[in-house]
Hints:
- By secondary structure, this protein is mainly α.
- The chain has helices spanning 9-44, 49-52, 89-98, and strands at 71-72, 80-81.
- It folds into 2 domains: 9-52, no CATH class; 71-105.
- It has a two-stranded antiparallel sheet with strand order 1-2.
- The longest helix is centred in the first third of the chain and has 36 residues, at 9-44.
- The protein is elongated.
Amino acid sequence: MTDLSNYSLDQLKDLQTQIKNNIASREKDAIANVQQQILTLAESVGMTVAQLMNIKGKKTGKPVKTVEPRYRHPDSPELQWTGRGRKPHWIQAYIDTTGNDLDSLLIK
């Protein structure tokens, strides 16, 4: 190892920059080398890289259905609920303050 105690601060910072650049360059070269090896291997067996890696496209499942809201706040129409999942806080607050039941919020 080199004794760095004799270097000035500017020299050390310059050395640090050189090291970072060298590391980045070597990493880039290593990645390119591995990519080329993979491509060569795939071609040697008559396959593409995707076939070799058994990569499949995006899965297509059932389309997600949006559910229409069943409940709406009478004073604030932007507050809506489909009736699925946990009851929103605004529903419980409305029921507590007005004394009405959940059916009073049904969208007709």
